[in-house]
Amino acid sequence: MPSQGLNVIVFGATGEVGRRLLARGLAHGHHVTAFVRSGQKLLQQWQGVLPEGVRVAEGDALDPAAVAAAIEGHAAVVNAAGHASEPERLQRICRTIVTAAEEVLPAPCRVWLFGGAAVLDIPGTPYTGVDLPGMPDIYRVHKRNWDLLRRSTTDWSLMCPGPMVPAHDDRLHDALRISTDTLPYPLGPWTRFAPRLALALSMRAHLGEITVPYEDVADVVMRHLAPSGPYARKRVGVALPVGMRLGKAGWRPGQRGADG
User: Fold this and answer.
1) For each successive 10 residues of the chain (260 residues), what is the average pLDDT?
2) Counting Cβ atoms within 10 Å, is residue 169 exposed (0-12), middle (13-18) or buried (19+)?
3) What would the 3-class secondary structure string for 241-259 be?
């Protein structure tokens, strides 16, 4: 069941993903704390008036004391700060947030982190996407953050989308394909016999299916904040409805696209 009316803190609430998390959290009736480096920037993004139900905590996501103080009293923690293009910083942010959540919130505390589709399992094989040839090394940070979560006492989920793009007219898709731990599209039994290069080419061929709107991804997270839900201690993959494909202008594996 979707969670309702929880106190949730979102780190990185002025970023492309974070802004959508804030909006979808409010749409689901949550009380949202936006943890940001600049409250002024957040205010400007909302045309000078923050919606009812939003409070602001300013600070550095790498500051353990500031993070712990901000997290205290919340039912769920969502991190959208950091990016794989700066893997060391992203890993430090995630470690700081997970450690603080374990220290100040009652167990098991609900935590969502963001990874990428490359950390999902390829069905019928012992591989994740980061194990395949041609996958940029920077994506290995998602696997390290997954390891961090598995060692933690948190009730965690790791959102693992492909490239993300703005939604057309902010509309959500009704028939998203959502998976746990594996890629969110079918591959068939051939994968168990396939060389790693063929698996890598297959992921590239399906890229349009896992290029998904920020709004859809944010909505999945904000609908599943309650503890012990269907995505607890799982990696979560997202694909467009069957037959749909999207592209992200200016995006290359291992790089940020033009919009974020």
Assistant:
1) 78 96 96 96 93 94 98 97 94 98 95 97 95 94 98 98 91 95 94 94 95 98 95 98 91 59
2) exposed
3) CCCCCCCCCCCCCCCCCCC
Q: If you count them, how many residues does the chain have?
A: 260
Q: What is the pLDDT of residue 30?
A: 96
Specify the pairing of strand 110-114 against strand 212-213: unpaired
- The secondary structure of residue 5, as a DSSP letter, is S
Q: Which CATH class, in words, describes the domain spanning 7-239? A: alpha beta
What is the C-alpha R_g of the chain? 18
Q: How far apart are CA 130 and CA 141, in angstroms?
A: 10
Give the tokens for residue 56: 């602001």
Q: In whole angstroms, what is the distance from residue 117 CA to residue 142 CA?
A: 9
Closest CA to 111 of 91, 95, 130, 90: 95
Are the CB atoms for 76 and 112 separated by under 8 Å? yes
- Closest of 85, 80, 86, 61 to residue 71, by C-alpha: 61
Question: With contact defined as beta carbons under 8 Å apart, do 127 and 121 qualify?
Answer: yes
The answer to whether the beta carbons of residues 33 and 53 sit under 8 Å apart is no
**Structure letter (DSSP) for residue 70:** H
Strands 177-180 vs 234-239: parallel, antiparallel or unpaired: antiparallel
CB count in 10 Å sphere of residue 62: 15
